[in-house]
């Protein structure tokens, strides 16, 4: 199997979710650190436009969104599945709620001036970051959550997490992790790690102990790789075959040139030939002079494709 390559940056919370999943599964991975803001000349050739972070590459297959990354990793490495049958619906639905609703409330809290120390180097970096994220937000359908809504939402989640864990269980749904553990972990890491908000988490002992268990997964770093090396790894491989690809998009059969991407925020699409669109995934095939042929995989939830 080609190496697993994560394109990410240290401060990115969804990258922390991917790092934790990779390490929990005991998988070896290579680490390409990308800039926190655009341009990203060694990542966009792989995705063809998608610009959210992280992106995972396995040879010339590119996995966008941590939901897709989790689905790919699930049967790799060691440890239990992220989606145990008895809890699959609850864990997936909770993970999706955390990755959107709790996340956007968390953004409001984390970006309060008193929680920002050390996040951006100086005023110049702050100005560049604000301009980049304004461009990123173009076309977004997401509502910014005001603090008076975000804070009680977060406090209630902490209280419910504490109640869930207070019988001494190791993970949210029992002795084995699910995808919901990794989603809850990365948002708490973003809000509480290294900020004055750490004290709020510490008031929840069961949640704090669970958080420390999850943080041990996130801590390990991958082996460094340059963006140029990662593109060469794509150029040197062939994408995995997409077997029996079908499309459930009305009037858009497999083989159509499409724009595929998120429908909620960071909506910059990737253009390519549709290889599959079903309830779980969208896959497109595309070419770039630096990568050769790549297949780009998206989850279906929160994503769409239109004729280019
Ligand atoms: N649902 C996506 C969310 C990814 C996301 O929002 N990532 C943030 C960084 S943590 C992002 O893309 N920010 C803008 C950027 O990095 O360009 C996932 O699970 O990967």
Folded structure, characterized:
The protein is an alpha/beta fold and 308 residues long. Helices cover 40% and strands 18% of the residues. It has helices spanning 13-24, 44-47, 66-73, 88-110, 123-136, 147-165, 179-192, 198-202, 205-218, 227-235, and strands at 4-8, 30-33, 55-58, 61-64, 223-224, 257-262, 270-277, 281-288, 292-299, 303-307. It has a 10-stranded mixed sheet with strand order 5-2-1-3-4-9-8-7-6-10, with helices on both faces. A hairpin with a 3-residue loop joins strand 7 (270-277) and strand 8. The longest helix is centred in the N-terminal third of the chain and has 23 residues, at 88-110. The model has no long low-confidence stretch (mean pLDDT 97). Glutathione is lined by residues 12-14, 51-53, 65-67, 99, 136, 266.
Task: Give a quick precis of the structure.
The protein is an alpha/beta fold. The chain has helices spanning 13-24, 44-47, 66-73, 88-110, 123-136, 147-165, 179-192, 198-202, 205-218, 227-235; strands at residues 4-8, 30-33, 55-58, 61-64, 223-224, 257-262, 270-277, 281-288, 292-299, 303-307.
């Amino acid at each position: 199997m080609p190496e697993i390559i994560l394109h990410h940056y240290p401060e990115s919370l969804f990258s922390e979710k991917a790092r934790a999943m990779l390490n929990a599964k005991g998988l070896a991975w290579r680490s390409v650190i990308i800039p926190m803001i655009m341009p990203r000349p060694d990542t966009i050739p792989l995705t063809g436009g998608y610009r959210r972070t992280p992106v995972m590459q396995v040879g010339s297959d590119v996995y966008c969104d941590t939901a897709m990354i989790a689905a790919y990793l699930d049967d790799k490495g060691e440890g239990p599945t992220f989606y145990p049958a008895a809890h699959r619906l609850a864990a997936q639905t909770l993970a999706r709620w955390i990755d959107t609703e709790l996340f956007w409330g968390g953004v409001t809290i984390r970006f309060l001036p008193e929680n920002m120390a050390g996040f951006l180097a100086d005023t110049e970096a702050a100005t560049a970051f604000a301009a980049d994220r304004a461009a990123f937000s173009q076309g977004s359908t997401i509502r910014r959550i005001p603090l008076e809504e975000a804070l009680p939402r977060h406090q209630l989640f902490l209280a419910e997490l504490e109640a869930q864990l207070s019988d001494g269980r190791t993970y949210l749904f029992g002795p084995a992790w699910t995808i919901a553990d990794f989603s809850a972990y990365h948002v708490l890491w973003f809000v509480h790690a290294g900020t004055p908000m750490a004290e709020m988490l510490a008031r929840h002992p069961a949640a704090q102990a669970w958080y420390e268990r999850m943080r041990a997964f996130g801590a390990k770093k991958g082996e460094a790789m340059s963006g140029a090396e990662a593109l060469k790894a794509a150029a040197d491989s062939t994408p995995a075959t997409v077997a029996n690809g079908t499309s459930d998009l009305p009037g858009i059969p497999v083989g159509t040139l499409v724009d595929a991407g998120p429908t909620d925020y960071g909506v910059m699409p990737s253009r390519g030939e549709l290889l599959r669109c079903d309830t779980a995934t969208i896959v497109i095939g595309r070419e770039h002079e630096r990568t050769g042929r790549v297949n780009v995989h998206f989850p279906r939830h929160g994503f769409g494709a239109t004729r280019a």
